[in-house]
Here is the input.
Amino acid sequence: MVSRILFIGGTTASGKSELAVAVARRAGALVVNADAQQLYRDLPILTARPGPAEEARAEHRLYGLLPPEAATSAGRWLELVLPVLRQAEGEGRPVVLVGGTGLYMKCLLEGLAPIPPIPPEIRAHFRSLALPAPELHRMLAARDPVTAARLRPGDRQRILRALEVLETTGRPLAELQRATVPPLDLGGRVRGIALLPPRERLLERIVRRLDAMLAAGALEELAALHARRPELEELPIARVHGCREFLAFLAGRATREWARQRTIEVTRRYAKRQRTFFRHQLPAFALHEATGASLPDLARELGDWLLGRDGASC
Here is the structure.
């Protein structure tokens, strides 16, 4: 059993990595990545990956592993993270698991349903249906009444997901969910927090961070990767915020300021989705608005908990 494990989630640009390093340094903990974009070995600036200074202060794992053509998923991340946690267990070492991909944390804590990827042609078919959500719900109820009963008739996205899974596997989503891969037994020695700064302050941080990335060479690293992989826009890594936007600038299809503003907007929308996910999908996580100067006190409290000086848990 890992001595203690701290989950630090939250929105992008909220200071998660800074907090994780501070906590890990105080407690002698291992910092483990739970952010899909930071799994990639390329674009370390654009993905805001911890740099040499942060890595010198605490040991980091699962950063910069995957090639640009590799797809990320909760299942793949679980395959990567479980050996790391088992090693920490053997060493009796606390772990700080940090990132903005809340689904990864949820799957580790609650388990993962064995649902295969949806073929593009099936996804395209259902997404092209010009039917109102209640009609789609009736379609689902005729084939998978158990799942349909769990979904609101107006919840178009989840209804479409259930139809896609049924078409792909021939099995109802509810049946697959009952076969969920069990969660890792963490022994109850778990605590979770989510950094959710106020929206206006977060937007300022998003803008400031992007400008710092550009000043640090984000465009140059993107151009270098594109030179090596001309098909970059078609690869999974292109989902990194700012990748396609600044590729458009580098190709002369857009201005630099358009790419900058578009990246800010894409990142802001992503942060909004993260805020919703951590609030509703991981309700046991304590929510914090702390940023900047207020982080040291939080780091001290969390570090003491990892060291066993506090009985709080997730």
